[in-house]
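hi! just following up on the protien thing from before. the input was this:
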Amino acid sequence: MPAASRFQRLTASCLAALLLLLVPAARAQPVTLRVATFNIEDVRSEDLRHADHQRLRSLAEVIQRIRPNIILLNEIAYDMPGAPGFDESQPTGQNAQRFADLYLAVPQAADVQPLRMKAWMPPVNTGIPSGFDLDKNGRVVTAFPPLSLPNPDGTPAPQSNEAREFGNDCWGFGTFPGQYGMAILVDDRLAISHDAIRTFQRLPWSYVGGAFLPTKADGSSWYTEEELRYFRLASKTFADIPVALPNGATLHLLCSHPTPPAFDGPEMRNQKRNHDEIRLIADYIDNASYLVDDKETEGGLPFNASFVILGDLNADPLKGNSFKDPVNRYLFTSPRIAKDVAPRSDIAIPGLEPTDTAAFKLRVDYVLPSADIGIRASGVWRALPANARTFPSDHFPVWVDLTIPPPAKP
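and the predicted 3d structure came back as:
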């Protein structure tokens, strides 16, 4: 064999060996991601029919300026059979991808770049008729009334009494099926592990040991025995959405949107439900024995899993109407969750504290990583979009820059 050929083969062998050494080394590096949560305030299917809805353009511009790698959207309708305007020829749960394609993938201002993201939406309980008189007003309402036209600025119109009566008898409050849904969006570097997703949409509230089930003034149960057999804990759903990272790690996104602890009477059914929905997050992390998901798989999160808790939890750790302080009680004191950094805004708004994430003067939106994840920076985004006089939602996005370690060696 000529010397040149032997040299070429030797060089190729050395390069191959070097690549084998370099690839595992690259995969063994931590990955830095910007993870965000944003309640975009009741975006509906009809809003997503075209790419010229001004409020959605402003929402997309805000997200384009934040530039998250992962974002949870709360309050985007889950498009499904029975929902207004649903096209029976289309698959369900496509609204978030429509938002990504029509709005995020198109620059919404001259100085921003588009975002190309993949979306996934879980089914939700909001606006799904229960067939029971859950609000105890003497009527069982199973049909939703015609929807009110939106306000001129694209924000939702006030709810009618008929719409509220329908929503109050649904498994989760909604004036039509799928309202107030949720979606995870990830960038092209990341992959949602669809086969490993777990949802707890149908988990009965009564399964929770020591659940704070509402009672009437005489101490009897607010719900009948039959209602309690079926009544669902999650007002929307609770979902564990695993995402594969470039370094080989898996990041579990624990997503939810508990009911507001308000809009009820002395029985406190919403306040108590909010408490137990937040408790569900902690119980999932701690692998509580009562857990069974929608595929009838038992148990919670593996002990060594990296995770991020995301969503509008409708509970402030210091203010508001929360029942028995569930955020401090279950999340901020958990040894499995990183110490709270309380993301802040550097834009002052009269009446709001720097950590408030909603226009109604509360901190309710969270990005809470597991204790093994590093936190590099965080914030609450309040900057107005270009040419906007007001912020396009009643919530402000929360973002956190995270460093996720590579998977542990076996």
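Residues 1-23 have pLDDT under 50 and may be disordered.
The longest strand covers residues 31-43.
cheers
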